[in-house]
Design brief:
about 140 residues, alpha+beta, HIT family, subunit A, five-stranded antiparallel beta sheet, 4 helices
Length: about 140
């Protein structure tokens, strides 16, 4: 689908996130802004805008991938809670922001958002190490 950064894997996508791996029904990305350590995006491999556009089997496969990633985030990074963001107002491709939250840390007790927060970028080596840990945990 044209104009979809997930389907095209275009420069916009690459400016925001790095592909970690393919899962059974989704693609897992590491969000480049790591203000919330381990923040990822799980994007449906099939181009749909809404969850109800998936069959029951597809929906279950997608959310099995989401659960697998959440478990890895909790175990790898000691997150106290995983926030799940499903928006898509401006990106009509079904995806879930998976944001580990830590008690006493940034935005604990409230919604995660990027407004007014300076992005925390890592070195290439740090991104690679983080992605290797996550990939090993989910595959």
């Amino acid at each position: 689908m044209s104009d979809c950064m997930y389907c095209e894997e275009n420069d916009k996508l690459k400016s925001l996130m790095i592909k970690i791996c393919d899962l059974s029904f989704s693609t897992l990305y590491l969000f480049k802004d790591q203000n919330h350590k381990g923040r990822c995006i799980v994007a449906c491999k099939k181009h749909v805008n809404e969850i109800f556009e998936l069959s029951d089997e597809e929906r279950n496969m997608f959310f099995a991938d989401v659960a697998k990633v959440a478990k890895a985030q909790k175990e790898l990074f000691g997150a106290n809670k995983i926030n799940y963001g499903i928006f898509g107002d401006k990106m009509p491709h079904f995806h879930v922001h998976m944001v580990p939250k830590y008690e006493g840390a940034l935005q604990w007790g409230g919604f995660f958002n990027d407004a007014g927060i300076t992005p925390k970028h890592l070195s290439d080596e740090e991104y690679a190490a983080l992605m290797d840990k996550i990939k090993a945990a989910v595959l």
